[in-house]
User: What shape does this take?
Amino acid sequence: MSKTNSPIRPLIDRFGRHVEYLRISVTDRCDFRCTYCMSENMSFLPKSQVLSLEEIEQIASVFIDRGVKKLRLTGGEPLVRRDIMTLVERLGDRLQSGLEELTLTTNGSQLRRHAPALFQHGVKRINVSLDTRDPAKFAAITRWGKLSQVLDGIDAALEAGLRVKINMVAIRGENDHEIVPMMEWAHQKGMDLTLIETMPMGAVDIERADQYLPLNQVQERLAKQFTLTEDPLKTGGPARYLRVGETGGRLGLITPLTHNFCEGCNRVRLTATGDLYLCLGQDDKVSLRDPLREGGIEAIDGLLDHAIDIKPKGHDFEIDRKKPQRNVRRHMSVTGG
Ligand code: SAM
Ligand code: SF4
Assistant: This one.
């Protein structure tokens, strides 16, 4: 139930940042096991601890009533959650009342099946994660994924009318040589490409320092080959954008390690168990699930002020071989990136 007639009491934190963006991890489960994201043997949450789709909708609605304009569904893999389209449809209805954008981040494996319904329910653009277009490398990075299925999913999304942005985690020695061809391929298909620095989150089976590729180095290399100009695009996200003269496309850079983006942070993250994390790189959180189950949406509304009040100034991710690893213990799939 939403309260669209109540006046909006905006969510503004101690540092004057206006929280207008909620990312929702609808499941911690996934049909892939990307090496930088998960260990091969992950244990997942029991169902009783996971919010129902109705509970997610209720919490999202309270956020929209408090001025959140953008929702992103993520995971785990959001499109493997059973009946996920019913949630997309219900949230899509809020695009008429308060919500300005509903979007999702996906690994693309289920897009052939779901892309038309996503578009029909008001999703206009999505992010698809793709780190390589080499089938063997793709199988190695995702462990369980099949490249042809994801490429077909991307085509299905474009055919359905969705705008697609490709997210590529830059992995030293793995896909650095593919950055240029990936960019040319994406731009030729009318898709933006965003490169992401690997972040030290959760225990994985590889050494983070081996994988870490600073994007300032990549940018310097690209600048020798392409005409890069700053693009003023602001999506409310952490990416900086460059326009690439030769391809006419846009290149985003998400650089939590080489360039901290926290001063403009406008987002918070809800996990599948109803924990509201106030920062991707810190442990500060407020649990919304039990208060919702015990006290309904009124209880949630009251908790949001406290939550926004404890939003940390920023993360302190660092990957340095010479220092002890400072890791956020939860995996990226808990908060969905
Ligand atoms: N399964 C979906 C997907 O892969 O797009 C959504 C969830 S996934 C956790 C969201 C994004 O986080 C993906 O683009 C993924 O590549 C990225 N990611 C996962 N672990 C990461 C890490 N340790 N550092 C940087 N990005 C990471
Ligand atoms: Fe799954 Fe996405 Fe994590 Fe890969 S990055 S394991 S697709 S949640």
About this structure: The pocket of iron/sulfur cluster (ligand 2) is lined by residues 30, 32-34, 37-38, 75-77, 107, 129, 333 (CB under 6 Å). DSSP finds ten helices and twelve strands in the chain.
